[in-house]
Amino acid sequence: MAKGNFAACLGVSLVYEGGWSDNKADPGGATMKGITLGTFRTFKPGATKTQLRNITQSDVEHIYGVGFWDPIRGNDLPFGVDMATLDYGINSGPSRAVKDLQRVVGAPVDGKMGPGTLKAVILADNKATIQKLCARRLTSMQGLKIWKTFKRGWSRRVADVEAKAVAMWLAHAGMPAPSRQSELNAEANKAQDQAQAQTKGAGGAAGGGVAAGGGNAAVSAEPNWWMIAGIAAVVVVVIAILVIKSRQHKDRAAAYKAAAATV
Questions:
Q1: Model's pTM, two decimal places?
Q2: DSSP state, 174?
Q3: Burial 147-170 (b: 16+ CB within 10 A, else e)
Q4: Gap between the Cα atoms of 71 and 69, Å rounded
Q5: What is the pLDDT of residues 46-63, one digit of tens each?
Q6: pLDDT digits 0-9 by tens, 178-219
Q7: Where are the domains of the chain?
Q8: Residue environment code for 61-71, b if the CB has 16+ CB neighbours within 10 A, otherwise e
Q9: SS3 56
Q10: What is the Cα–Cα distance from 31 to 36, expressed in whole angstroms?
């Protein structure tokens, strides 16, 4: 299990959490290294924005350790799964991260990392668990009102965490470096193929929509504009979904290639 892996996992998350932020579009409000003022105040009641902005590294590690790593029982999770779960928890809360992890491994969903969940995680295919958890995380993000604002950064972050978590699992599974590199490159190629398939699908949907609309108009002196509009609306939605999926798989391909290059 990943006991002692907290620093390595947190280091990946902190790259994305960045420094000071007080973005009005972010419902979390004032944030430093991913720690909101509200969270900081649970550890230091009455803390100000200035104090948050000058938070010490020891406080950062303590807050992430007690508030995020401990609730997901990071020390008891397999290598790589701990990273994917921690980063998800930092973004969306430990309970949500655990619930999706439970869904992935087929454990009862209660948001608590109990012995039954741990057993299911340990017995599961770790690489598949990481990939499925990251996919669920991204789907959850797409349902948020602020998705349009943060979608590019979030997509790249989840892809990067997925690739690094898989690389970590492969390394701790004892796989030799050349084999790890080959495995990661294979995942990159698979993601690229998926991206290309989604792009072709979007093009096909666009062509099919035009043909359907044109066909309806051609066979009737008074075309059913409501039907045409309905078909057009469905086509637009399908194309949008395929374009988003294509972009996400491109991000995954790039992340896996970068992970392979560091082996």
A1: 0.83
A2: T
A3: eeeebeebbbbbbbbbbbbbbbbb
A4: 6
A5: 999 999 999 999 999 999
A6: 999 999 999 999 999 999 987 787 666 666 654 555 545 444
A7: 1-174, 176-263
A8: eebbeebbbeb
A9: coil
A10: 4
Fill in the amino acid letter for 130: I
Assess contact for 222 and 146: CB atoms under 8 A: no
Q: Give how far Cα 225 sits from Cα of 120, 147, 229, Å.
A: 53, 32, 6
1-174: CATH number = 1.20.141.10
Structure tokens at 229: 């509009």
Tell me the sheet residues that pair with 167: none
- For residue 21, the cross-strand partners are 31
Q: How many residues does the structure list for the chain?
A: 263
